[in-house]
Please model this.
Amino acid sequence: MLTDEQVAARTDRALGAAVAAGRDLGLTVTEPQVLYSVFSVIVHLAPSPVVVRVPTVLPEWTTPAQQVTGQRRELAVAGWLADRGHPIVAPSPLVAREPVGRDGFSMTFWQYVEQVPDAEIDPADGGRIAAGLHDALREYPGDLPFMDFCEPFFDNSFAFLATRRDLISQEDLDRAVRDWAAVKPLLDSEGAFTAAFPDVAVQAIHGDAPVYNLIVTPQGALCGDFELVTRGPVEWDLTFSGPAAEQAYAQAAGRPLDETALRLLEGVRMLQIVACLAQVPNMPSLADGMRPALENWRATQPLAQLI
Model:
């Protein structure tokens, strides 16, 4: 379990790597600022209009090659959207659209955008923005795997947690393993999922939660954080967005969301939170923040009952 001092030192190393990499690329960096630090350290290379995302909390089984592959995919999709004028946080035009390695970190470079402090997105607006994003992504020509962040994330996380009674109770782990075993066959392949849900739209999706990954600028809201971009059901992007966002999405998209698939995928999202307990040793502050979500998960139906 990392100490607070070790986490702070890791943040400092990520900041130093981002600054050094930026200067190597010819950027002027005199007032670097850490904007955010949780799973990644986000650094503004001021005064250059560039923000660097330096992932620092990764599953232990993620290889450097796998990380770079995912970052290239993210840059390719975000760049493709930006080139077509879609409102997103775009890759920086001042450097190549490629991950940059430095001091043991692999990082990506993004255009700095001015944010409106404390701005909130109306849920209905978020639903409409997600519908517009999906409409654009439907035409994405690149190859994307189907829900690839599920496998081996769940299996490896639960295998690790089986060795750490300090992180999860045996009762909770047994329930999580049963839940994953129930849904894994549906998420192993696009064919298996579409056979179970033939009316659900499967396409390129954000992969995380576009309704919650919005940055409000003076010019409007921008979608960001495409780290988990993948091919999957559109309902995955709408999990836990709420009734207002769901209704606005359906109206803007011209099709209703599949209620059964949406609730099942919300269960998978909850299971994802349980699996994230495996990351607590690398980011101890997660533990306290996850407790309410874990209590909510314990009160939900087993996933086998939702299939």
